[in-house]
Design brief:
Order of helices and strands: EEEEEEEEHEHEEEEEEHEHEHEHEH
Shape: globular
Strand content: 25-35%
Mean pLDDT: 90
CATH class of the largest domain: Alpha Beta
Bound molecules: zinc ion
Number of domains: 2
Radius of gyration: 19 Å
CATH superfamily of the largest domain: lpxc deacetylase, domain 2
CATH topology of the largest domain: lpxc deacetylase, domain 1
Largest sheet: 7 strands, mixed
Number of strands: 19
Structural class: alpha+beta
Length: 312
């Protein structure tokens, strides 16, 4: 049986907010079974709102995924949520001392490091999952995203296949396929950084956006090449980052998902549209709790999920 997980102890860090450019303190605290992931926004040391990491609180998906409640927002949540989801951590109270989660190096790896440094603790309650039994597709022009069931006898986990196509010599057409059960999120996904084009970065800065953006927290491309001195971490880092984003955005369903997600040229907006469409189509999924499905004789054919955690 798989159990819910939280952190062994509280841990914190300080980083730069991508859009504000301001320093933001982030504190991750252990939480009780059933608590889920919740984010608290602090202004001047005082709590102004507490927002569950659920899709119903998404208020903006234009540049990053932003949650909002009672008129207060917390931006750029997707890489942190991706790290929780990728490491199978269910219950955490996150304090954000500012308007957005710090961007760190533009990937989820610093959050993975933080979570591993705090340690992950197994709790007493069984874990519940959304298991896809039907397929849901959303479109936006030539972009589309589809979430459907895992084939019988496959691992009970989430597989993500991401396709991207950019008219740029370094990116071009890329696909990356990740199955949570057989490849490590930590090594293969978490290190992939967000990316942007120089002309977009210049436009955003001129409009007071991405004020904290730099070559320290994104891959930036000019017309022909990668501008970062160290180059890429993977040749297909762009497609891998899209998988990282999908993990974060899909975690806003509130439970880990058992299914296959295929995403073609998607961003946060379409990922969110998919999550909403799936939640609205109750016949396309069922809620299963680990004990029930392993003990039951439903003959689903699923094998026990394996959560991979590297020691690196
Ligand atoms: Zn991202």
């Amino acid at each position: 049986m798989f159990f819910q997980r939280t952190l062994k102890k509280e841990i914190s860090c300080v980083g730069i907010g991508l859009h504000s450019g301001a320093k933001v303190k982030l504190v991750l605290k252990p939480a009780a079974p059933g608590h889920g992931i919740k984010l608290q926004r602090f202004d001047n040391g005082k709590i102004v709102t507490t927002i569950p990491a659920l899709s119903e609180y998404v208020v903006d998906t234009s540049l990053a995924t932003t949650l909002g409640r009672d008129g207060h927002v917390i931006g750029t949540v997707e890489h942190l949520l991706s790290a929780f989801s990728g490491l199978g951590v269910d219950n955490v109270l996150v304090e954000v001392h500012g308007p957005e989660v710090p961007i760190m190096d533009g990937s989820a790896n610093p959050f993975v490091y933080l979570i591993k440094t705090a340690g992950v603790k197994r709790q007493v309650d069984a874990k519940s999952y959304i298991r896809m039994v039907g397929t849901v597709t959303v479109n936006d022009g030539d972009k589309w995203a589809r979430l459907g069931p895992q084939p019988p006898s496959s691992d009970a986990s989430l597989s993500i296949i991401s396709h991207i196509d950019f008219d740029h010599p370094v990116i071009g057409s890329q696909s990356y396929s990740f199955s949570f059960s057989d490849v490590s999120y930590d090594r293969q996904i978490s290190r992939a950084r967000t990316f942007g084009f120089l002309h977009e970065v210049e436009w955003m800065k001129a409009h007071n956006l991405a004020l904290g953006g730099s070559l320290d927290n994104a891959i930036v491309l000019d017309e022909f090449s990668v501008m970062n001195d160290d180059g890429l971490r993977f040749v297909d880092e762009f497609a891998r980052h899209k998988v990282l984003d999908c993990f974060g955005d899909v975690s806003l369903m509130g439970m880990p998902v058992i299914g296959v997600l295929e995403a073609n040229k998607t961003g946060h907006a379409l990922n969110h549209k998919l999550v909403q469409a799936v939640l609205a189509k109750a016949e396309a999924w069922e809620k299963v709790t680990t004990g029930e499905w392993l003990d039951s004789s439903t003959g689903s054919g699923f094998t026990v999920p394996r959560l991979v955690m590297d020691g690196s």
